[in-house]
Specification:
Length: 217
């Protein structure tokens, strides 16, 4: 009977020792620094066009605070109608509700893929009137994209609605790689709406109401 001897690792299993570098090569390796990868600049014009065309919803942020969602139609330079590049917004009775817009606002654009905030840009807000030369061109831009319209929308817009032309300009407030740290959440504003107290009728009553309702014998 022989004693079991400890197994020695084979030559292939032993990790080879590092080969020492010459002094000059070691000094050169110590001086090598890894340069950070340069950031690719964002094409704001192209990103604005993409965000405006792929999503029909934007948020108009007023200088005093508060952002209001708005359905819009983006008009670019390649379209003969209107004056672009700009976003056309209509509001009023029978349309979306928007407050009075000052001359300078901010537009918050979302990503079509994630729904999150993609770009925030400065914009000028210009109100159009039916007697303006650009009114008919604005109607031509908005009317084909107005779904489920009832009646003559052009006449209704001229009588009781407001059309704004929102033109982005300047450097973006927020863009990919440079976003504000706050969440952007806003408190719920008080409104007269409330939950109704009336409850619909159920056949043979509600299940919860029938529990433990039998009188003791």
């Amino acid at each position: 009977m022989t004693d079991d001897a400890p197994t020695q690792p084979s030559a292939a299993a032993v990790e080879p020792a590092p080969v020492p570098l010459p002094a000059a090569a070691a000094d050169a390796a110590a001086e090598v620094t890894v340069e950070p990868t340069p950031e690719v600049p964002v094409n704001v014009t192209r990103l604005t066009h993409e965000a405006m065309t792929k999503s029909g919803l934007l948020w108009v942020r007023l200088p005093g605070g508060g952002a209001h969602p708005a359905w819009h139609v983006w008009h670019d330079d390649g379209d003969e109608r209107g004056t672009g590049p700009a976003a056309y917004v209509v509001s009023g009775p029978g349309e979306q509700s928007l407050p009075w817009l000052p001359e300078e606002v901010e537009l918050v654009l979302r990503s079509k893929d994630t729904g999150g905030r993609l770009l925030t840009v400065h914009a000028t807000a210009r109100e159009l009137h039916p007697q303006d030369a650009d009114w008919d061109a604005a109607v031509d831009v908005l009317r084909p994209e107005r779904l489920n319209a009832v009646g003559d929308v052009a006449q209704r817009w001229a009588q009781s609605c407001t059309i704004h032309v929102l033109t982005p300009h300047g450097r973006p407030v927020e863009q990919p790689g440079s976003y504000a740290q706050d969440s952007g959440a806003a408190p719920v504003r008080p409104a007269p709406g409330t939950t109704t107290r009336w409850r619909p009728w159920h056949w043979r009553g509600r299940a919860g109401a029938r529990r433990n309702t039998r009188a003791p014998s």
